[in-house]
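Much of our argument rests on the idea that a fold can be written as discrete symbols. Part of our work consisted of pairing the sequence of a single chain with a tokenised description of its backbone. The amino acid sequence and the backbone structure tokens for this protein are reproduced below.
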Amino acid sequence: MKYTVVDAHYLYDYKIDMTFEDGKHGIVDLSEYTKRGGVFVNFGHIDYFKKFTIDYGTLVWDGEVDIAPERLYEKAL
């Protein structure tokens, strides 16, 4: 699936450099998620935000919080 994240690196602030299975590459700014609360409440702590992994083709924090890969693909500039 083209939306699958195959590589991701933290850059600065809430920006992550990402590559997708179809070769698309871009920088995703996830700063808007710091204001959402709920499962994203810990995004307010940059040290937490930096500690993502790639699991099942998307970014995951603490093995619980994730963002749909389609959304990441859409946001990649």
